[in-house]
């Protein structure tokens, strides 16, 4: 009888403690009752240093969250961002240090396809979220093989196919020239362009010239492309080479129909160095509001962003689209961590990133909604073709 009563008592105790156990906070590395550690490696120096603005804005955003909202769900964000000079080996070194030394919960907002591809095997082997990378490679949307890696901006192949569709709509037999970075980033865009142009792609592409990101100039490639007789040019580059290409086109007095990779479609990082007048007519796939465009002057979200920038990043160039992008990256990261509640294991952080529902940041174009799933990691998918008018962007109907 005593044994039976003891058994019942134990059962009752287990039943009473079960809800408390379920309600317990669950933490992984880098998380406590007061802190969430987020790691980043990004180019503050080197050929892609203009994109270091992303890291600076994200750091300011997390500081603002800490100062004004007490962090996220009562936990302050510790954001550790290190310079990699746009070097894949350095990025790998930084990430290992962040994971094994600093014990961050996740890696966030790493710039560039080659760098993200270099760190992806390690992070997936370790089970560390690699979230909202600043690169659009289609390879970064592969949850079946790399379930810990997720992009943010539109997919590179989708972007290039989008341009091809537009070109073919009014020019059925274009003569196409392509300047592309000789790595996974540039080749992904080139392959997407060929897919979009269809079975005659190899005939339509009359010249394709590549460059290394460390090359001091792309002048010789631009001369070859002009001499090909092309009437359409695709610039699959980042800001530095895009600015050089636009400037060289002006020197050559060459005015092909020009499509620019959306990641380089920055007034501050690309068009100002090249010359605003020289950049007039360049087209790109818009997916965010151009905060400098008068048509958004009374938009509540743009007003909120402008006030935030003036308060938190005084002196920053509001014309630089990278500032708006960094702000939006930060908002998306915040949403994921809020959805996690008190379950801040790496597994649940990734689960919540793959379960965003009709979420949008205020600076995305109005028709854009973010919906992710365990089988589709694409975050931003909506694009609108836009043309630079020398000051801001016009929609191409």
TrEMBL record:
The keyword Cytoplasm does not apply. Residues 35-389 form the Leucine-binding protein domain. InterPro entries: Leu-bd (IPR028081), Peripla_BP_I (IPR028082). It comes from the Bacteria. Residues 1-23 form the signal peptide. The keyword Repressor does not apply. Keywords: Signal. Belongs to the leucine-binding protein family. This is Amino acid/amide ABC transporter substrate-binding protein, HAAT family. The lineage of its organism: Bacteria, Pseudomonadati, Pseudomonadota, Alphaproteobacteria, Hyphomicrobiales.
């Amino acid at each position: 009888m005593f044994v039976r009563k003891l058994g019942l008592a134990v059962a009752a105790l287990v039943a009473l403690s079960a809800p408390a156990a379920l309600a317990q906070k669950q933490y992984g590395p880098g998380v406590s009752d007061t802190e969430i550690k987020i790691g980043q490696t990004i180019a503050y120096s080197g050929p892609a240093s203009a994109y270091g603005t992303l890291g600076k804005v994200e750091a300011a955003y997390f500081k603002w969250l800490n100062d004004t909202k007490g962090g996220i769900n009562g936990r302050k964000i510790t954001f550790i961002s290190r310079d990699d000079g746009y070097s894949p080996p350095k990025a790998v070194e930084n990430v290992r240090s962040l994971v094994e030394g600093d014990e961050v919960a996740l890696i966030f907002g790493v710039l560039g396809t080659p760098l993200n591809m270099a760190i992806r095997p390690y992070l997936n082997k370790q089970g560390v979220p690699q979230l909202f990378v600043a690169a659009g490679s289609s390879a970064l949307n592969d949850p079946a093989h790399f379930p810990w890696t997720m992009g943010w901006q539109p997919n590179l192949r989708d972007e290039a196919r989008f341009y091809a569709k537009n070109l073919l709509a009014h020019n059925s037999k274009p003569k196409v020239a392509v300047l592309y970075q000789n790595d996974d980033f540039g080749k992904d865009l080139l392959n997407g362009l060929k897919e979009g142009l269809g079975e005659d792609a190899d005939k339509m592409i009359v010249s394709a010239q590549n460059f290394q990101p460390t090359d001091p100039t792309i002048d010789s490639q631009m001369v070859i492309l002009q001499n090909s007789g092309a009437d359409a040019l695709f610039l699959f580059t980042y800001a530095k080479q895009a600015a050089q290409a636009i400037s060289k086109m002006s020197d050559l007095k060459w005015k092909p129909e020009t499509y620019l990779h959306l990641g380089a479609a920055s007034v501050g990082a690309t068009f100002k160095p090249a010359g605003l007048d020289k950049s007039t007519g360049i087209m790109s796939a818009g997916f965010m509001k151009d905060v400098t465009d008068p048509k958004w002057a009374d938009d509540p979200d743009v007003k909120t962003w402008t006030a935030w920038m003036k308060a938190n990043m005084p002196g920053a160039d509001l014309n630089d689209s990278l500032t708006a992008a960094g702000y939006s990256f930060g908002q998306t990261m915040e949403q994921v961590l809020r959805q996690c509640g008190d379950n801040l294991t790496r597994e649940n952080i990734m689960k919540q990133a793959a379960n965003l529902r009709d979420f949008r940041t205020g600076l995305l174009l109005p028709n854009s909604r973010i919906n992710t799933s365990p089988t589709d990691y694409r975050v931003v998918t909506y694009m609108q073709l836009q043309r630079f008018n020398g000051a801001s962007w016009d929609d191409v109907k």
